[in-house]
Amino acid sequence: MPDPRSGYTLPVFACAAAIASLRYLYKPQSYTTIPVDLINPPEQADIPIDQTSAIRPGMALAITRSDPGDNLDLTRHTPIWAVVEWADASQTECVVLKGGEGIGIDKNRGDQAAFYDYAQRLLLTNLEQELLKGDRIQVTIILPEGRALAQRTSNASFGVVEGLSLLGTSGISQPLSAPGQLEAFKAELQQKAEQTDSLVFCLGENGLDIARKRGVPEHCLIKTANWLGPMLVVAGEQGLKSILLLGYHGKLIKLAGGIFHTHHHLADGRQEILTAIAANAGLPTPDLQVIFNAPTAEAGLQHLRSLDPAGSNWVDDIYTTMAERIDHRAEEYVKVHCDLSIQIGSVLFDRSRQIFATSQVGHSLLQNFSQREQ
């Protein structure tokens, strides 16, 4: 099987379109490709440009299309527009970034456009290099299909509404959900198993960031993406003694229902699992109906939180049970598939990236990892 092909993250295409628009303002002509300094990694990428055009004097538009490589990414081929216009001297910054149609609004950051740190740094660095001294511009990034695509993501669970975010910490889009990537994950796990008998499994960048801030050593961290089942089996085969599962509750909840590949294209059932655990805990029927019909697992959590100020303890009761069930189902999965035993603990965080639920083993393992030497 050939190695999975990597692509580029959305910020890279937004940046390429913005550069093409700016260059058009300086010298009206068509561009077939635009070089972008990725910053991370420190290399250049040549990004295809579909179209460039003037909109009116002092304003230009360029269009490119997303190419995430061999990845199950719903933004594949989606158009990215960048409108660049001259700003007057009253604008103090050389470059001002704005989110247009299809760019999400981040409710966690005062309704700002959902440009994250890497996207902002990428755009500002590249555009400032293109500007002539004294010139100022305003840049509006537009994702015409962003609002519709966002309905198929968990963005709203993390506080991003009305569109997609320019997310990522790197310009390279690694094919985390392509089947060939599993082999790379396995190889990394095998390498790290030579250094330690205990690892922290993080589904994505949020989990890795939380683990690092908690002081977990880098050699104990491994990103699994959605391949939790196969990675648990490999961990068992490598003789690991313990695994800490650290993830967003809307993903890890699937393990409590016996779903060990967590990509939403393959299986879901989050609200059903949460409703079943809540029912077993004794949650009243009207509240069960609210959770069952909630649009996201995060919405279900927020409903439980709305009940607790009245004197109940539903969040702790239900999610502690869920974390314990995740442990049990994961340990059982390893036992069934490779007839080996591993101690597994779970730590769950919410859309604000705050840990709010742990199993007993998960709490102990997280403390132990945090106290290790780097």
From TrEMBL:
Pfam families xrefs: CbiD
Reaction it catalyzes: Co-precorrin-5B + S-adenosyl-L-methionine = Co-precorrin-6A + S-adenosyl-L-homocysteine
Enzyme category, top tier: transferase
GO MF terms held by the record: cobalt-precorrin-5B C1-methyltransferase activity
SUPFAM superfamilies named among the record's database cross-references: CbiD-like (SSF111342)
Pathway the protein contributes to: Cofactor biosynthesis; adenosylcobalamin biosynthesis; cob(II)yrinate a,c-diamide from sirohydrochlorin (anaerobic route): step 6/10
EC number in record: 2.1.1.195
Coiled-coil ranges from the UniProt annotation: none
GO biological process, one term: anaerobic cobalamin biosynthetic process
Keywords from the UniProt entry: Cobalamin biosynthesis, Methyltransferase, S-adenosyl-L-methionine, Transferase
Entry's family note: Belongs to the CbiD family.
Stored PANTHER family: COBALT-PRECORRIN-5B C(1)-METHYLTRANSFERASE
Name of the protein: Cobalt-precorrin-5B C(1)-methyltransferase
Organism the protein comes from: Acaryochloris thomasi RCC1774
